[in-house]
Write a structure and sequence with these properties.
The protein is mainly α. The protein has 31 helices and no strands. The termini are far apart. The protein has helices at residues 2-20, 24-37, 42-54, 58-71, 76-88, 92-105, 110-123, 134-143, 145-150, 154-165, 170-173, 177-187, 215-243, 247-260, 265-278, 281-298, 302-318, 322-335, 339-360, 363-378, 382-395, 400-412, 416-429, 434-446, 450-463, 468-485, 488-496, 499-505, 508-519, 523-527, 531-542. α14 (247-260) packs antiparallel against α15 (265-278) and α24 (434-446) packs parallel to α26 (468-485).
Length: 549
């Protein structure tokens, strides 16, 4: 057993050396061999987690970090490993909780404090860029012997400029020892401990200082930087041709940009936009998914990933595949919420509901439900009748007669406002349907609005002079109206129950006009020349509040 632990420590030492040399696969293999020998060694899991993170296998890094915390819950470094892995996976709320848990064990741990601050900034919608002002940080880097040597390396300077332009690219370079050293100088903390763990880390020897890059390496990095510049120029040319709607030429230049720099997500999203305009939605989606993969690998801005998902959603919208469109608009909103994407999502959701409504329509089933509703009505089961008629309307919403039948059922249930609503919908569906006007008159009569009720009954009689139900209703309302007119107080109460009358009587201008008419009846002639005032005066006459001799 003791031999196994010693061998496991040897594997750990070997893995640390390989990790420092950048041989990630071999380092992971060494740590794995050590874990096979000693599965209780939390440092082996921690170091393998670091190696997986450097290799951008963040899910595996998280698994190992979870194991570290399980084996040694009182070790702050485990929480640092777990929090970092969650950050790389974009799960910042969970990472924040892990860093807070770690700080309970070591409140002064700089790695945990730094991670927590970054999570808070991410969750707060902002991300401070430590490389945002190169003029301010270059003197600090020049003053430090280690980082001063890096400034001679063109590839190092290219990294600084890229991080100045795009703060989200920081995570892409974070595992570079030079960048860890630089961050330590800028922020005033030591980040080099991220590369590996041991119970008591040895002091770095003078020989461990990074050597200057040989000339061939410098030349290679300079050429790479030139390729990036060329790729951006090709992208701009592609944009120009896109605006001119010369799509084939635009694709040609975007392809050149991608061949020069395969890591830039915008090259792929721009190319996808061309396919979208050409109506080649399959290629558009394929290119957008590639953009998402590139964005994930390069830790690109969430807005760019959201844009790719939104374009996929728009492509499905064009093909009227609304469920798939909703799926990708939701993915886009998960990355970054915008008003435009939210509106497109709502439009698709409305389209799905409308499609479901139309798919539900079946006139044959509607007729069956209507017949069942009629039976329930005849048997005095009015709530059941309403239920059956409602289902019939869903199955055939254009059948005016079903609304009329449901209005009759509502009348039996004393739901006069609902009966009025259904009768008006019935008339809207078929203005020539006499029964609809009769139902409306009956509802208004029940609501004591005799003037409007008589108007509804009259429309029914215009369509069918022999409609006895309409003529009976009309004369009932007329008699009631005449009786009420002999009772001024009853007339006033009935009239003031009308919202339109309330609005007229509360208008100061109308009050003044009515007073003028009382003092000088001839003033009426002048006021009637105004159509709006004439309409209001007619309303007051109709309800019996105003009479003219």
């Amino acid at each position: 057993m003791a031999d196994n632990k010693e061998k496991a420590n040897e594997c750990k030492t070997k893995g640390n050396s390989l990790l420092t040399a950048g041989k990630l696969a071999e380092a992971i293999a060494a740590y794995s061999e050590g874990i096979e020998l000693d599965q209780s060694n939390h440092i082996l899991y921690s170091n393998r987690s670091a190696a997986h993170a450097k290799n951008r296998d963040y899910d595996l890094a998280l698994l190992d970090a979870n194991k570290v915390v399980e084996l040694q819950p009182s070790w702050p470094k485990g929480y640092s490993r777990k929090g970092s892995a969650l950050q790389f996976l974009g799960r910042h709320a969970e990472a924040k909780a892990v860093f807070e848990e770690g700080l309970k064990l070591d409140a002064n741990n700089e790695q945990l404090k730094g991670g927590l601050k970054e999570c808070e900034e991410r969750l707060g919608g902002k991300m401070r860029n430590p490389f945002g002002n190169l003029d301010a940080i270059l003197p600090r880097l020049q003053a430090n012997p280690k980082t001063a040597a890096y400034l001679k390396d063109p590839s190092y300077m290219a990294m600084l400029k890229q991080m100045q332009a795009d703060p989200n690219s920081l995570t892409m370079f974070l595992q570079d020892p030079r960048m860890q050293e630089s961050l330590g100088v800028i922020l005033g903390i030591d980040l080099t401990a991220m590369s590996g763990d041991s119970p008591t880390p040895p002091r770095p020897s003078p020989q461990s200082k990074p050597a200057e890059q040989p000339k061939p390496e410098e030349t290679m990095e300079t050429e790479e930087s030139e390729d990036i510049k060329k790729s951006l120029s090709e992208k701009e040319l592609g944009n120009q041709f896109y605006k001119k709607k010369e799509f084939e030429k635009a694709i040609e230049h975007y392809d050149r940009a991608i061949s020069l720099d395969e890591t830039n997500i915008t090259f792929y999203t721009n190319k996808a936009a061309v396919y979208f305009e050409q109506g080649d939605f399959e290629k558009c989606r394929e290119t957008c998914l590639k953009a998402v993969d590139i964005g994930r690998e390069q830790q690109a801005d969430y807005k760019l990933v959201a844009k790719a998902f939104a374009r996929i959603g728009s492509s499905y919208t064009k093909e009227q595949d609304y469920p798939e469109a909703i799926k990708y608009f939701n993915k886009s909103l998960t990355e970054h919420r915008t008003k435009d994407t939210l509106e497109k999502l709502h439009q698709c959701q409305k389209a799905v509901k409308e499609a479901e409504r139309l798919a539900y329509i079946n006139p044959e089933i509607a007729q069956e439900e209507k017949n069942e509703g009629n039976k329930a009505f005849q048997n005095g089961k009015f709530p059941d009748a309403v239920k059956r008629y409602t289902e019939a309307i869903k199955r055939n919403p254009d059948d005016a007669k079903i609304y009329s039948n449901r209005a009759a059922a509502y009348m039996k249930l004393m739901e006069f406002s609902l009966a009025l609503k259904d009768s008006e919908e019935c008339i809207k569906k078929d203005e020539s349907f006499v029964k609809g006007h009769i139902r409306k008159g009956a509802a208004l009569e029940a609501m004591k609005d005799m003037t409007k009720a008589m108007s509804a009954y009259q429309k029914a009689l215009d369509l069918d002079p022999n409609a006895k139900e309409a003529s009976d209703g009309y004369f009932r309302c007329l008699n009631s109206d005449l009786q009420n007119r002999n009772d001024p107080e009853a007339v006033r109460r009935r009239a003031m129950a009308d919202p339109e009358v309330q609005e007229i009587m509360s208008d100061p201008a109308m009050k003044m006009i009515l007073e003028q008419m009382q003092q000088d009846p001839k003033a009426l002639r002048d006021h009637l020349k105004n159509p709006e005032i004439a309409k209001r005066i007619q309303k007051l006459m109709d309800v019996g509040l105003l009479s003219i001799r």
